[in-house]
Design brief:
Layout lengths: L4 H6 L25 H4 L5
InterPro entries: YhfH-like
Protein name: YhfH
Organism: Bacillus methanolicus PB1
């Protein structure tokens, strides 16, 4: 049986940054693939 689109997105695994491998804190269906640190948005 095909699950609802909401359940599909709820069950996606957390996204990982393609540079450092950290989990990205954002919606899984977003197109970004780098964390804020690797994008240079925060000085750490």
């Amino acid at each position: 049986m095909i699950e609802s689109i909401v359940e599909f997105f709820k069950n996606l695994p957390p996204k990982k940054c393609t540079d450092c491998g950290e989990t990205i804190e954002e919606q899984h269906e977003c197109y970004g693939n780098k964390c804020e640190k690797c994008l240079g948005l925060f000085d750490m």
